Amino acid sequence: MLTCNKAGSRMVVDAASSNGPFQPVALLHIRDVPPADQEKLFIQKLRQCCVLFDFVSDPLSDLKWKEVKRAALSEMVEYITHNRNVITEPIYPEVVHMFAVNMFRTLPPSSNPTGAEFDPEEDEPTLEAAWPHLQLVYEFFLRLLESPDFQPNIAKKYIDQKFVLQLLELFDSEDPRERDFLKTTLHRIYGKFLGLRAYIRKQINNIFYRFIYETEHHNGIAELLEILGSIINGFALPLKEEHKIFLLKVLLPLHKVKSLSVYHPQLAYCVVQFLEKDSTLTEPVVMALLKYWPKTHSPKEVMFLNELEEILDVIEPSEFVKIMEPLFRQLAKCVSSPHFQVAERALYYWNNEYIMSLISDNAAKILPIMFPSLYRNSKTHWNKTIHGLIYNALKLFMEMNQKLFDDCTQQFKAEKLKEKLKMKEREEAWVKIENLAKANPQYAVYSQASTISIPVAMETDGPLFEDVQMLRKTVNEEARQSVGRKAVSSVQLRKV
Fold first, then answer.
1. Known Pfam families for this protein (predicted)?
2. pLDDT tens digits, one per residue of 293-320
């Protein structure tokens, strides 16, 4: 019998004391036995590889038997790769069992349980100690799935929903090498087993739901999204309602999670794939992005701008008209951002020829939205690079429609004049309030008392003089500074 003990969460066999049928002994090479005996020896080697070894608590133990298992796995990889008609029906249950024994295990506790954003430059991933064996098991299973002799109709008895669910649980492994193999393995299973496709999509949805609304921590989101990118690319048209719901209820809410940077390129690819399939989804997608737009996280805002440009690259002109006003209101805010990378990324849109053609066709709506932000920041933004990009955008708008540009300039000046008039009215109103305060019988008493002590409370029919003076001074200073800045900007822009 095999004697087993726990190491972490895996069953580990002490090879030195093993005397059961799966004792790791050096068997003959498959190629060295007659063809009639090769299947039997193949099965013996598969069973031999079901023995697990301790790579964690005692990595130097059983080195001889670890090498025997590694050599057997390596030999079987070569055997099914270079030989035909060797994957017979009795092999299927043995292969699936060997894979399950080696792979399906409880993963160790996360080294990053809080779900903080993983930084590839600073953080080192936790690597699987038993990888010398696990890698070969993955390679063997993949070669089996990719073999011309592989028969899904036989394998489906063993590669079932339970198998897929256990495979998906491994995507939370912290070892990027394992996740990469899992990604390829699941993709091959999705392609070979039509009956499992809906189940795979459903279980991936469940992983995403838990990630978004419960844990906010999962190591394999990027890999799962990469698989989905290929799956979405193969969706038939017209898109099924369940696929549209998946986009709106699962993919788009993934933008809310704080660790977005870890998987954003794959997520953006999936979203763009959907829009290439069905352009009518553009409006709900863009409106959702604007809804989830980050308010205080500038690097995340740059990611949103990147994704939005990818969407605009594939947008239909008829769909652009539906979203251009809220979209450019957000871009106007980005241009005014004090974070120069956000402003810079937004202004790079004016270097995109297709986006410029869309803007040109709808300049009458877009220029009035963008002009105030561009005008105000043309000199007031602290970063010199932004000044040049803004002048470039204004120049393009001017060349696009000179009359419209002049109209926007005049309208902007008129708005500034209105602000000046409002400031003057405010000034006059404060003078009236001050005069009313002075006319109050309590004014003289309060003025004398305020030089001695601060009154706790006072019954009065008018505003307190000190409050009026302080508020009037603050408003006047802010108004004068605002008008001064805008007047300087106006003169400088006219020179340009």
1. B56
2. 999 899 999 999 999 999 999 999 999 9
**Three-state secondary structure call for residue 351:** helix
Select from 344, 343, 358, 347 the least CA-distant residue to 311: 358
Taking only the tens place, the pLDDT of each residue in 424-465 is 999 999 999 988 888 888 877 777 766 655 544 444 444 444
Give buried/exposed letters for 269-286 (b at 16+ CB in 10 A, else e): bbbbbbbebeeebbeebb
Which residues are bridge partners to 5 per DSSP? Answer: 12
Alpha-helical runs (H) found in 255-316: 264-277, 282-291, 298-314
Question: Distance between CA 63 and CA 132 in Å, rounded?
Answer: 12
Q: How far is it, in rounded angstroms, from Cα 269 to Cα 175?
A: 24
With 0.85 as the threshold, say if the pTM is over it: no
Tell me: cis bond preceding 238? Omega within 30 of 0 counts. yes
Burial 471-496 (b: 16+ CB within 10 A, else e): ebeeeeeebeeeeeebeebeeebeee
User: Which one of 118-132, 313-327, 481-495 scores highest in mean pLDDT?
Assistant: 313-327
Is 123 in a helix, a strand, or coil?
coil
Domain range summary for the chain, segments of one domain joined by +: 314-425
Among 96, 102, 101, 104, residue whose Cα is nearest residue 141: 96
Chain length of the chain: 496
Which residues contact residue 492 at a Cβ distance below 8 angstroms, ignoring those fewer than 6 apart? 378, 379
Comparing C-alpha atoms, which of 465, 467, 479, 403 is closest to residue 437? Answer: 465
User: DSSP class of residue 13?
Assistant: E
What residue ranges in 125-276 does DSSP mark as E strands?
Answer: none
Rounded CA-CA distance 429/424 in Å is 9
Query: 327: which 2 tokens?
Result: 């979209």
Both tokens assigned to 58: 């005692």
Q: What is the dihedral of CA 99, 101, 107, 108, to 10 degrees?
A: -130
